[in-house]
Amino acid sequence: MAPKTTKATKAKKAAASKKQEPISNDIPEKRIESAISGLEKYLQKEEDTEKVNEKTGKFKLISDDDDELKDKLQLIVVNNVPFNEDTDVSKTKKAIFKPLTITTESSVHSHISEFKKILVIVNDSVKFNTDKEDETSEIYKLINEDKIPVGEIITPKKLKTLYKPFENKRQLLADHSVILCDDSIITLMPKLLGGKAFNKISSTPIPIRVRNSPITLSTSIKNFWNKKTAAKYPNGSTLNVNLGNLLTYSTEEDKKHLIENIKVIAKQFLEKYMIRSIFLKSNFSPVVPIFYNEKSLKELIKSKETAKAKQDEESEEVIKNKVEINGVEIELNAFNRALYEIANPEELETIFKKQIHSAKKRNAEDSEEDKNEEVKAPAKKQKKAAKKD
């Protein structure tokens, strides 16, 4: 015999059937392909139109500096609230010193045309070989076998001595595009590098594991180069992720890697935040939308409507607490407003004598200020007229 269906069971089934399907965190590949194709066509069109100098009408022999940056590709993620209010790190008020590390499917850095080198900062206590010229060192293998552009490998001691002068430190940061720092000394970096270094992602140290082991250091650098990128926590609700230069994704395989990277990066944000929309763009191009969240937009509209309703209520409350006694408008608090409602109308002037006196005094002062302004205005006009003569 089948078990009886209770009212509670029916209610649960009805609620389950009404439940909306969760929003998919996967952006369709075709949409991303279409966006990339559109940006490529835009760049090609711009290149064709800008081969001719607008002023002279002749073909350009030397390209502008900006031309090299036009294909710089960015993934733009828009959150419902500012990112620095919607993160765990923001609660510690250290978002400025901690970059956001993002997982990728393949290397983004190898597609950045202007990428220089990786600066590596390790603990003073490190004993293993970090000589780039020594064929037995792990760093040598990273540079020559894995083709990872490792630059200087320094310690806090060097930062305190050799790179203490401002110009030396400035040049060190300018020569590198990424800083990877031993996580055991990451807290020393604000003091050693200076606060201004943390204004840009290229000079913000990204923590990695070293554990006093050359293999661990090598693995951490490889992992970052091949499977990670980083971005700064913005003050607002818009975050940019650098995807490299679009024209460097020249083969079909490169384009597949780009699409996978966009999907993987977008998914991380969609799972963690209430993302409103995601766009692709190159420098100087229009933005191309690849995702928007209708639920997020509705929540944003609802929150704004709630805030407006609250503001209207407060304004209405102020209006309600304003009354007029013998031609003088006064503002009453909640207690005095209640007293006003029950008091004898003939005694109102006596009960609220103090408030009426203050209101009259304030009105007289405002009136005096208006008169002074009226007197000053013609005098200013006369002075200007005299100067012209």
UniProtKB/TrEMBL annotation:
Region described as Disordered: 1-28, 359-389
Superkingdom as given in the UniProt entry: Eukaryota
Keywords tagged on the record: Proteasome
UniProt xrefs under Pfam families: Ribosomal_L1
An example Gene Ontology CC term for this record: proteasome complex
Compositionally biased tracts (Basic residues): 7-16, 378-389
Name of the protein this chain belongs to: Proteasome-interacting protein CIC1
